[in-house]
Amino acid sequence: MVYDLIIIGGGPAGLSAAIYALRARLNIVLIEKMAVGGQIALADNIENYPGFPSLSGIELMQKFEEHAKGLGLNIIYDEIKDITDDGEYKTLIGVNESYQARTVIITVGASPKRLNIPGEREFTGRGVSYCATCDGPFFKDEDIAVIGGGDSALKEANYLTRIVKSVVLIHRRKEFRAEKIIQERLNNAKNITMELEHSPISINGNGTKTVESISIENVKTKERKTIPVKGVFIFIGIKPQTSFLKNIEKDQDGFIKTDHYTLMTSMPGVFCAGDAHSKKLLQVATAVGEGALAATSAEEFVCDTC
Ligand SMILES: Cc1cc2nc3c(=O)[nH]c(=O)nc-3n(C[C@H](O)[C@H](O)[C@H](O)COP(=O)(O)OP(=O)(O)OC[C@H]3O[C@@H](n4cnc5c(N)ncnc54)[C@H](O)[C@@H]3O)c2cc1C
Q1: pTM: predicted TM-score of the whole model, two decimal places
Q2: What residue numbers bound the domain in which 178 lies?
Q3: Are 142 and 250 found together in one domain?
Q4: 242 with 104, same domain?
Q5: Does residue 105 line the site of ligand 1, with CB under 6 A?
Q6: Which of 113, 171, 175, 275 has the fewest CB atoms within 10 Å, i.e. is most exposed?
Q7: Looking at ligand 1, which atom is closest to the CA of residue 286?
């Protein structure tokens, strides 16, 4: 079977694209490798998606999924490993099987960046985490460290102050990049301390069983110190999940380049939306807008070429 459109990825961008494509009566399928919802399902609370002053990532994504399924969305659980351009249609090679479509929208999003310091890999899942909502409750009444200075780091640090004993926020710069409203909220928390202009250099523990401390270095003086903590939460940015896409043009960081007007990639009929797409602001609102635009462009491409 050749679909009109295959969407790869079931995060905000993919589900938004699906809603627009289904309303345009395209014959589509969405392919997701894990669970529908994407990264935002990890967020404890979202306060910047218009129309929803405060709700959890999971709640928001359930609404997206219900909306798309109400329009008849068919979801296949598989991981796409490659896309080839076979002229009239594209072939998507999945782990389980191959799929064919006239157009494709890539909405594969991103995954957390690693610090790549000693102890990080060894203690992942045993004290090192990239998701406060998932793992925060394991550190109730413990001292923990949060690494990062952007929106996600400060938002998640604020959430963690409500469930753990204390948070030390480690950031390599003097200033935070996070929205001012998020910074103001952190100032009200009593159980947080800051280690600004410090970089983490190792996560230390008892064998590989549990984390016991984090060692940090002053970025200017190079002076080092070790802080006792039981958990380390890392929010230092994301990297796009695009390494499997060999035949599509990307920027130096692996984000997919597109024509800004249609979101078409360097492969004709293949579009990209959301965090995998090279741009300044990676948020649900931008992912959703791009999903809508990519689906509309895909619909035009299908009509123009049939
Ligand atoms: C902790 C945290 C807090 C955040 N808080 C906010 C916030 O408050 N407000 C806000 O606007 N944004 C927030 N964000 C950012 C927001 O989550 C992202 O901008 C948004 O999820 C991007 O959506 P997306 O659909 O492009 O990608 P993603 O959400 O990353 O979804 C991509 C999907 O594609 C799937 N996939 C990947 N590769 C493949 C493959 N090869 N085959 C099949 N499926 C694949 C993945 O499993 C995933 O489900 C937060 C992010 C994090 C991590």
Answers
A1: 0.89
A2: 114-234
A3: no
A4: yes
A5: no
A6: 175
A7: 19
The rounded radius of gyration (Å) of the Cα atoms in the chain is 21
CB 33 within 8 A of CB 77: yes
End of a domain among 197, 215, 234?
234
Residues that are catalytic: 131, 134-135
User: Looking at the chain, which runs of residues are DSSP E strands?
Assistant: 2-8, 28-32, 75-77, 80-85, 90-94, 98-106, 110-112, 128-129, 143-147, 166-171, 192-196, 198-206, 210-218, 224-228, 231-234, 238-240, 270-272
The maximal CA–CA distance of the chain, rounded, in angstroms, is 66
Are 227 and 267 part of one and the same domain? no
Please check whether residues 209 and 258 belong to one and the same domain.
no
CATH number of the CATH domain containing 199: 3.50.50.60
Give the separation between CA 57 and CA 72, rounded to whole angstroms.
23
Nearest CA to ligand 1 atom 50: 40
Angle between helices 12-23 and 284-305 (to 10 degrees): 40
Of 20, 32, 40, the residue with max ligand 1 atoms within 8 A of its CB, to mutate for a pocket test, comes to: 40
What ligand 1 atom has the least distance to the C-alpha of 276?
A: 26
Ligand 1 atom with least separation from CA of 282: 19
- Residue that terminates a domain, selected from 193, 208, 234: 234
The reply to whether 95 and 145 lie within a common domain is: no
Tell me how far the alpha carbon of residue 295 lies from the centroid of ligand 1, in angstroms.
18
Residue 144 CB–ligand 1 contact under 6 Å: no
Each residue's pLDDT, cut to its tens digit, for the chain (306 residues) gives 999 999 999 999 999 999 999 999 999 999 999 999 999 988 888 889 999 999 999 999 999 999 999 999 999 999 999 999 998 999 999 999 999 999 999 999 999 999 999 999 999 989 999 999 888 999 999 999 999 999 999 999 999 999 999 999 999 999 998 899 999 988 888 999 999 999 999 999 987 789 999 999 999 999 999 999 999 999 999 999 999 999 999 999 999 999 999 999 999 999 999 999 998 889 999 999 999 999 999 999 999 876
30 lines ligand 1 (CB under 6 A): no
Answer whether 148 contacts ligand 1 (Cβ < 6 A).
Answer: no
